Amino acid sequence: MELCGITGLKGTVSVPGDKSISHRCIMFGSIAEGTTEIHNFLPGADCLATIRCFRALGIDIRQEGSTVTVHGKGLHGLSAPSHILDVGNSGTTTRLLSGILAGQPFESRLSGDESLNSRPMKRIIDPLTQMGADITSILGNGCAPLCITPSRLHGIHYDSPVSSAQVKSCILLAGLYADGETSVTEPGLSRNHTELMLKEFGADIRSVHNLDCSRTTAVIRPCGELHGQKITVPGDISSAAYFIAAGLIVPDSEIRITNVGINPTRAGMLKVCEDMGAQIELSNERTEGGEKIADITVKTSRLHGTVIEGDIIPALIDEIPIIAVMAAVAEGTTIIRDAAELKVKETDRIETVTDNLKAMGCDITPAPDGMIINGGRLKGASIHTLLDHRIAMAFSIAALAAEGRTHILDSKCVDVSYPTFYDTFEELL
Ligand code: S3P
Questions:
Q1: How is the beta sheet containing 254-261 ordered, strand by strand?
Q2: What whole-number distance in Å separates Cα of residue 326 and Cα of residue 324?
Q3: Does the pLDDT of residue 211 top 80, yes or no?
Q4: By the number of CB atoms within 10 A of the CB, which of 37, 96, 166, 352 ranks highest?
Q5: Residue of 21, 89, 92 to test ligand 1 pocket, by largest number of atoms within 8 Å of CB
Q6: pLDDT digits over 156-180, tens only?
C-alpha cells in the first residue's frame, strides 16, 4: 500500500466489532445450551480462526459477514477434532481455547502460524498444570504446537505474574470444568470481557477488589450450564484508535466514530489523548450487555508529550504502536514504560515500532519495557510490518501525517483484525 501526507479527514465512521468480544461470543456460545445470536461480529482472520476451531470441535456455526449463529452443545458437548486445530495468528484463540480443551475428555492438538508458534505459552501451561491439566509444548520450547490430553481439573488460586486477559481467561475457562473454586489475581487489571460475558451466559463468576482497590481477583465456580445469548458486539476501540489518531494528527480534520466500546479496562488510550492535549469528546454513552459504549469525536489538535506507565498499560497495550505514532508528531518527549509485554505480541512491538519510526526520521530510543520518543516531523519510508496488523495500521496513519510517500509492506495483514481498514479511510476523504 502506497500512502502520502494529506489534510482534511472529515466524516462519521463506524469500526467493526471488537476482536476480543467476538472471540468470546463464539467460544462461550459453543459451550452454552441453545443458540447464541451474534451481531456486529468481527469477520477478521483471528476470529474466523476461532470459528474454524469450534467447528472442528463439532459445533454448528453459521456465519454471514458480521452475523453469526452458534448452535451451542453445552459444557460437555464438544467432540474430539479429527485433525490438529489451526489457530492461525491468534493468541486469544490459542490461550482461551486451551483453557476449554483442558477440561475435555478427549485429546487435542493446536498449532498456528510462525509468529503464533513463537509466542510464550508457558504462561498458560504453568497454571493449567497446577490445576491438574495435561498440557505440553510439543517441541518442548514453551510454545505451540500444544498437546492437551484428558485429566481431572481442580480449582486453584493463581497469582499471575503478568497482567494478561488471555492468561486470566484461560484459567477461568478451565475453572468451569474444575472441582471447586478457581481464582486469578493479576498485577494490574487486564480487559474483563470474559468476566462480564460469562456472567451474562449464567456462569457463577465475580470480581473482588482488595482493600485498597489496587488489585482485582476474578473468581469462578463450576456451574451446571451456560445459556445462549443474543449479543451485539460493540465497535473495537483498538480499531477506532487509528481513526482517533488520524483525526488528531492530520491537519484540518474532524472525525466521529460511532458505537465504540469504552470498557475502562480497554480505554486507556482516551486518557492518554487527553493527557497529550487532544480535543476529544464522548457522546451518546450507554451500557449494553455489561459493556460501555460511546461515540467519539476528535479534532486536529496540538499534541504534546506525556508519560505512560503503571496500571494504565494493560488498558492500552494494543494501542501503543499508534500512540507512539502520535508521540512522534507531538511536541516534546513521550516516555512509555512498564510495557515489556509488547515484546511478546504478534511481533516484538518495541522493535517494530522503533525500527519503523526511525526509518521515518523520528528520534526514538527503545528500552527493555518501552520507548522514549522525541516528537518532530516524519518523512515517508518503507514500512516493514513483519505481518503485524497493528504495525501496518499504525504506520498507515503515520504516513498520512508525514512528508512524502510511504510504502506499507504486506499491508494485507490488516485482515487479522480489520479487513476493511483502508475502505473506512475512503469514507473520510
Ligand atoms: C486479548 C488480550 C491481550 C491483547 C490481545 C487480545 C484478549 O493480550 O493484547 O490483542 O482478547 O484477551 P494479553 O492477554 O496477552 O495481554
A1: 10-14, 254-261, 291-299, 279-288
A2: 5
A3: no
A4: 96
A5: 92
A6: 999 999 999 999 999 999 999 999 9
Atom of ligand 1 nearest to the CA of 317: 9
| CB-CB contact of 284 with 298 (8 Å) | no
Ligand 1 center to 203 CA (angstroms): 22
Verify whether ligand 1 is closer than 6 Å to residue 265 (CB atom): no
Cell of 212: 485498597
Average pLDDT over residues 285-289: 92
Q: How do 146-149 and 279-288 pair as beta strands?
A: unpaired
Measured between alpha carbons, how far is 413 from 275 in angstroms, rounded to an integer? Answer: 31
Query: What are 315's three cell numbers?
Result: 488498558
Q: Which atom of ligand 1 is nearest to the CA of 238?
A: 10
Residue 46: its H or E element: helix 45-56
Q: If DSSP codes are grouped into helix, strand and coil, which group holds residue 208?
A: strand
Q: Is 94 in the pocket of ligand 1 (CB under 6 A)?
A: no
Q: Which helix (H) or strand (E) holds 289?
A: none
CA 70 → CA 55, 98, 130, 165, 413, distances in Å? 10, 20, 32, 23, 27
Cα 11 to ligand 1 centre (Å) = 30
What's the 168 CA to ligand 1 centre distance in angstroms?
10
pTM of the model: 0.98
Q: What burial letters (b/e) apply to 233-248, b meaning 16+ CB within 10 Å? A: bbbbbbbbbbbbbbbb
Q: Is the pLDDT of residue 213 over 90?
A: no
- The residue to which cell 493479576 is assigned: 186
Hey, whose CA ends up nearest to atom 4 of ligand 1? 318
Phi, psi of 343 (to 5 degrees): -70, -20
Q: Distance between CA atoms of 256 and 10, rounded to whole angstroms?
A: 8
Model pLDDT for residues 216-239, shown as the tens digit of each residue: 899 999 998 999 999 999 999 999
The string of pLDDT tens digits covering residues 18-67 is 999 999 999 999 999 999 999 999 999 999 999 999 999 999 999 999 99
318 is catalytic: yes
Distance 24 CA to ligand 1 centre (A): 12
Three-state DSSP at 147 gives strand
Q: Are the C-beta atoms of residues 332 and 305 closer than 8 Å to each other?
A: yes
Length of the chain measured in residues: 429
Contact, 376 vs 306, CB < 8 A? no
Nearest CA to ligand 1 atom 16: 164
- Describe the crossing of helices 389-400 and 320-329 by its angle, rounded to 10 degrees: 20
